[in-house]
Amino acid sequence: MSNDRQHKLPESHDETDRYTVDDAVELEKTAFDDCSIGRRTFLSVAAATGAALTVPSAVSAEVTDGAMTDLAEFAINAAPDGHQVTLVIEFEDTDSLNAFYDEYGEPNWDIEEDELPPKVVTREKPTPAAHAYLTTAELTDALELGGIEYVDFSPGSNPFWKLGDAYNDRVFPKVEDARDFVSHSELDQGLHYLATEYSDRLRVHAIGHSPGWENLYTNEDSDPKDVYVAEVTKDIQDEASFAEKDKVVFSLSIHGDEPAGRVAGTRIIEEATKGVADDFEDVLDDIVIVFVFINPDGWVARKPQYEFETWWGGTERFRYDRGNAAVGDTNRQYPTMGWVYPGYWPAEPENTPEVRPDDPQGRGYEDMVPDALAVVEHLRGYDNVEYLCDYHMMDLSDSMVLNLESNAPYDHNGTHNLDEVNIRIGDGMTDHWESPESIANDTSRASEAIHGIEGYVPERLLDYGTIYDSLSYQITGGLLGWAGQPEEFGGLGAVTVAPELVLRDGYDFKPFIERRLEMAYRISMREYAEMTAAETNATVATGGQNTAYVGSDVLTRRSADLPYTDETPGKGNGNGKSNPRATRVQRRHETVHPGPGGSASASSDRSTHSLAVQFDAHGIDEGVVKLVNPGGQTVREIDLAGPIADGLSHFYVPDPDNGDWSIEYDGDADIDVEMVLLETEDEYPNPEEVLGYSQREYVVNPMQFFEDLEPFLEEGTIKGLRVHDVRIGRLMRGNSGKRRYDNLVIAHDDGVDDQRYVSAIEDFVEAGGNLVLTDAGMNLLGRLDVGQAAAIESDDIEHGTTNFPNLTNRDLDHPLLTDVRPIQQEIWKISQLGYTTGDDSPVWTVDSDAFTDAGGTVAGILGEDGDVGAGMLSAGDAEINVIGSVLPPANQRELHPFGMADYTLSFMGHSLICNALGFEQRRYVNGELVGTWGELR
């Protein structure tokens, strides 16, 4: 035992002497002069302990001992009375270890009964050691017991990762044995150890770094953390084999407070690397599994300012953070096609501007999203990413896991691969657990411990749909949307899904529930890996039918049509550009304080193109945030007590009314608000003047859907016609009265006033041809004098807009909805077609009374007026199917620097069209027919 110890209980400190990270960054650097602990170390410990600490120069009473590291000494002395500090302790002999355990151990600890890990765990070899959660007083007493040779501050999952010979058993302990979530430093050390020991299976890259927390508060040098990528496969050093293998990518904790992905991923990496992961061993011959630890800032620092008394509280621990040190949401900053929200920071590595032109602080993308830039650049280096899964968490839901279909556009095969992997994950969870009841004790315990809600048991193990289907909102800038878009538009062309797993706990590691959450995501990762290794194919059975669609240039959108592109002849200032600074941005940052009159406002005028409002209410679980228009009406609101409030942090208003718009909040906390007014002299805002990115070229038309579907037909054909072709009789075989085609699809009203064109369509239907009218093509109903459509007048057709193109009040027994599941509502996904979360998605509907009076059967409604959005009319032996919004043309009005998609059908939208045509979809895995959707008619 060393003889230079001084054991003193710390005197109590006045709270004004203690500093959280928020407070400490305001201190003068002189507060850390002549101290063994510097300012940066202070900040990191303050974050890791989750406590308000005393700065070293102000600590008036200390526990000191020659066995303690400077970091341990500082952590234990600066922490508040009663705070348990995470420590690793080495002893001179097992007798000393046993005496310590007799004093502080929990020999009756039981995972089935206890919420948190045991207070102490021990080992005897290679050195007697313990890992413990101790208060200052407890450490003082332990030092008095004697026999302690070493003490260090040591947060992490492996109790002894900071000591020598820590990995005799495992690098990342089984979840039941873990002390906490894996720490970032522990991950660094553990991955590199495994890569050295098992270099034939694991390769680790530090591909970039985070912004670092200090930068958020002081604009001084930040403390960035590495973004790690772990690649796992057999014979990984064989570069040719590695390049040829298909890849599956798992994104872990893009939101730092959603840790289940990295809990599962770290264990799979270790076991697969060692060759003991039986559920992954076979696929590693054929594929590479890529794990990306994507947002280190979110989980290296649990920010003390998130300590507040809500249902997250109840212990002395503290919360991880959703975003990185510079942006509030790291899953909104990717260069997705279509609409780009003007307040986000889309991370496009190609031609990244040094400074964003509209940022009043002169910041650039490297300042704000270096982590996302690194991820995009690295993943583009893989030739064949088949699947990418971005693992998330939520609070409570009717389903233990909700799998979210990304916003990316998929062809027929991609659509079915996406659906199939969801089915297989659900089957895998059922095979393992049978039902949620088998783990009801743990889900109920966790819900009560985390949320204060008793008796929570999910109704289902898994469900899946679009983001809106599952969470009732939509996004732009998501990792999945970027990764799923075609490679020619900067994406990976991957099938992408985001699982949301219940019982998120950003504070405490609770082994009893984490073991269940880890298993749910292990099953998910296994099924993705197996699907990546499988041979898949999807076909369309048509019964020999031939289909025509009527194309038109009115549906085409081109980047060349925009006034600011180099492609635009004779426009702008003579250089193919619009007038200098034709697009401007006004930003207002305000804080909405609690109490009457608390609000933030911005004024819109005739030049205002859009109003974007972003607010930071993460972690606040009460009150309603309202957007109020100049007339005083509440036009949007978000209840922060809702289970999905974290994803709802913005409002967007295209073409806002003139006057003062305001944000109001009726809760008890401060909410930071940013209001972005986009102003333009042109109809279209120039992305280069706002975001610093020039416009990517594109030519898109939604009828490309049928061109893309045609190669998957088992028989029959799909052919595009022009309005002129229909007009001159090419639907029919001369004057024989016989049809050339069995189905005809029209999605526009070009030619609707041409009686010869309309008459040719009537002749086709009267001859028994089936007609499908979608989108603006619905206007033909008011012109057709055939079958039940003859009773529909032009005034019965309405064109409007909505926030989301969702089919509601559905009759799931209707032929148009064959094999559509109850959760599915969203027909197409808005953002990659350029539409926003504002009220601008186009829909066409038929008056419900007129439709049913005509004899039509209703599949569902669109919009808020209760009008028919999908249904069927008869015309003798023929059908006239109507779908009011499924293949709209792209919207060029909003910022869309990274191009545009032709179409963005959900699986339900895809099925709607196939059902309307009377097709049967067939799916094959490894040559075996695994399912059919729809029925041949």
Detailed description of the structure:
The chain contains 24 helices and 36 strands. With 937 residues, it is α+β, with helices and mostly antiparallel strands. Helix 9 packs across helix 18. The radius of gyration is 30 Å and the shape is globular. It starts with 17 loop residues before the first strand and ends with a strand. The model is unreliable at 1-16, 215-220, 303-317 and 569-578 (pLDDT under 50).
Largest sheet: 8 strands, mixed
Tell me the number of helical segments per DSSP (H or I, 4 or more residues long): 24
Distance between the termini: 87 Å
Query: Using only CA atoms, what is the Rg?
Result: 30 Å
- Low-confidence runs (pLDDT<50, min 5 residues)? 1-16, 215-220, 303-317, 569-578
The strands making up the biggest β-sheet line up spatially as: 7-8-10-9-11-14-12-13
Q: Mean pLDDT, as a whole number?
A: 90
Provide the structure class: alpha+beta
Multimeric state? single chain
Principal-axes shape call: globular
Q: Strand fraction band?
A: 15-25%
Helix content: 10-25%
Number of strands: 36
List keywords for this structure.
7-stranded mixed β-sheet, alpha+beta, disordered N terminus, 36 strands, 23% helix, 8-stranded mixed β-sheet, 937 residues, 24 helices
Q: In short, what is this structure?
A:
The protein is α+β, with helices and mostly antiparallel strands and 937 residues long. Helix content is 23%, strand content 23%. It is built from 24 helices and 36 strands.
Question: What's the arrangement of secondary structure elements?
Answer:
Blueprint: E1 18-19, H1 21-24, H2 39-49, E2 53-54, H3 70-78, E3 85-91, H4 94-104, E4 120-123, E5 129-134, H5 136-145, E6 148-153, H6 184-197, E7 202-209, H7 214-218, E8 226-232, H8 239-244, E9 246-252, H9 260-274, H10 278-281, E10 287-293, H11 296-300, H12 365-368, H13 370-379, E11 385-393, E12 399-405, H14 412-433, H15 440-451, E13 460-466, H16 467-471, H17 479-484, E14 495-501, H18 511-533, E15 536-541, E16 547-550, E17 557-558, E18 583-592, E19 599-604, E20 608-616, E21 624-628, E22 634-639, E23 650-654, E24 659-665, E25 671-680, H19 687-690, E26 699-700, H20 704-709, E27 718-721, H21 723-727, E28 743-746, H22 755-766, E29 770-774, E30 797-802, E31 841-846, H23 848-853, E32 857-862, E33 867-875, E34 878-883, H24 907-916, E35 920-925, E36 928-933
Parallel strand pairs: 9-10, 9-11, 11-14, 12-13, 16-27, 16-28, 28-29, 29-34
Antiparallel strand pairs: 1-2, 3-5, 3-6, 4-5, 7-8, 8-10, 12-14, 15-35, 17-26, 18-25, 19-24, 20-23, 20-25, 21-22, 21-24, 30-31, 32-33, 33-34, 35-36
Helix pairs in contact: 6-9, 9-18, 14-18
